Structures are given as structure tokens and as C-alpha cells.
Amino acid sequence: MRILTLSALLILTFSEPVFARNISVEQSEAASARDAVGDAMSKLSDIEQKIQRQQAVLTQAQETLKQYQAEKAQIEKDLDAKKAIFEQKSKALDEAWKQRNDY
């Protein structure tokens, strides 16, 4: 009986590689997960670059807007000054016509 138990123990010890677990499924799943992480990191990098480019476009657009707003304010100021001159000249012309008609 002892010999039989010892024989069984020896067979199990030396035949362990035969019963080794196949890990090819786990290897494949780990490789797929690694690839998925790589893809996600690539997508993240791409979207970060798009965000940076869009922020640069936005910054430039904001600068252009400020320039246009400053230009508009100057044009409105010039317009007001020209309107005042026009009103003054119109009044002078009206007075000249009035004086001419009074003769």
C-alpha cells in the first residue's frame, strides 16, 4: 500500500508539467487589454492635440474680435465728430440761405 501511495505521489510530482494549465487565453486577453489601453491613450493624445489647436484658433479669434471692437469704437467716435461738424455746417448753410432770402 505504501508503495502504491509513493508511486502515485512520484507520478503526480513528475507528471505536473503534463497537467500544467494552458494560459494562452489569459495571454491573449492581456494582449487585447494592452492594445485597448494603447488605443485609448492614442485617442486621448489626438483629442488633446485637437483641443490645443482649437484653443489657439479661439485665442486668435478673441484677439481679432478685440481689434475689431477697438476699431469700431474709434469709427463711432469719428462719426460723432463728423456729425457734429455736419450739423454745424448745415446750420451755417441754413443761416446763409435765410440771410440771402431776406434781401
TrEMBL record:
Range of residues in the leader sequence: 1-20
Assigned keywords, A-Z: Coiled coil, Signal
Protein name: Uncharacterized protein
Organism for this UniProt entry: Methylophilus glucosoxydans
Coiled-coil region(s): 44-85
